[in-house]
Structures are given as structure tokens and as C-alpha cells.
Hints:
globular; mainly alpha
Amino acid sequence: xxxxxxxxxxxxxxxxxxxxxxxxWELTKRDFKTKYISNLLGLSWAIxxxxxxxxxxxxxxxxxxxxxxTEVPYALFLLAGLISYDxxxxxxxxxxxxxxxxxxxxNKVNFRAAIIPLVKISxxxxxxxxxxxxxxxxxxxxxxxITIYWIQIFYYLFAxxxxxxxxxxxxxxxxxxxxxxxxxxTIVMRVLFFFTPIFWEVKNIPEHMLxxxxxxxxxxxxxGYRDSFLYxxxxxxxxxxxxxxxxxxxxxxxxxxxxFKRLRPYFAEMV
Length: 271
């Protein structure tokens, strides 16, 4: 009975996303432009900001010894892992504040508040695409061969967005009633930063500790980005990691749908 109810409600959410795709796109463009329009260089910062970060990483980890031994240059190893974490971190923080920042739309007739977190995530996707292009150029200039496995990035990006959708429906609705959740998320993301294989190889994890790292969904995403860009490993080569990730993601999605629907009638009073 519970699963049937979940699938009905989940299908309704997805249907509303499809029906409101034009609104989502227009709000996404508005949100993306708003981030940079007040600055002197405007949208140029969408390219300059990630480019500056990558140049700094390349310089520091190319010319300063790190003590890390990796199969590829450490600067590229770090870059491939960091961009996936950075996308997730910015998206979840932005989406959590989404409903409160779009409060003027909540009282609109027939407006689906569920699309607001998706607008915030989509805005970050636009920035992420810019970063992916820059990373691809850096890898190519660093003699990393371009292979068909690079296409897997779209699979891992979809997986990340699916996970973010469930979590952001939960956090964005809760944040209206418990604003402190924003600070909790910041702390959690800092903890996950050190429990995600960004600075170190997955193979360095002791076998008996591996199960705990698999409970961190970012473990799967970061590893997937590296497998696609650097190691040419197809995603189906890690079936256990895949099962862990999608199992956890579905749980977050179910929780997100249920909590959002339960709290939705009270949004107008809180914004």
C-alpha cells in the first residue's frame, strides 16, 4: 500500500515537472543571470570564477609536492573529484534556500512549489556545464585521451540530480519551519568533504571500512567522475557501489516526496 502511494505521488511530481518545464527553464535563466548581473563583468564571472579556481589548483598541485601517488597527475586527479563535490555542495545549499527566496510565487494560483528546488539545481547545472567544458580542455591539453567513457558524465550528473531532488525537497520544506537546517547542512557537507575520496584514492580505503564509505552517496559520484574522465572504467564495473548509491537515493527521494507534500499546505503562512 505504501509503495503504491509513493509511486503515485512520485509519478505526479515527475508529471508536474514535465508540464512546467517551460517555467522551470525561464526561472532557471532568471536565477542564473541574477547571480552575476549586478557585477561589473556580469555573466563573464560564470567563466572567470571556475577558470581561476582550476588555474590555482593546477599551479599548486603541479609545482608543489603533495606526497600523493596517483595513476595520473595529482592536479588532474584532484580536479576530477573536486568538481563533482563542488556541484553537489552548491546545489544543495542553494536549493535549501529556494522556497524562501521565491516566496512571492508560493501564493500564485496553480503554481507548483515543488519546481523551485529544481530551478536552483538547474541553475547550478548551467554553471557545472561551463566547468565541465573547462575541465575537458584542461584534460585534453594535459594529454589525457578523449574516450567514449567521457559520455558517462551525463549518467553521473543525472544520478547526482536525482539524489539532489529528493534531498532538496526535504531540506527546502523543512527550512521554512526550522531555518537552522541551513547551518546543519553546511556542517554535514564539511564532514562529507573529508569522508569523500577527493584528495585520496579509493583503493587506499581498508576493505573493512569500505561499507561505511559506500553509505556516503558522494563516494559513488566522485569515483564515477574519475572513472569517466581519467580511468576509462564503465559504470557497470562497480555493481555493488551502484546498488548502494541508488538504494540510498531512492530512500531520500521517498522521504523528500512525503515530507514536501505534508508541509506544502503551510508554506504560504511561513514565507
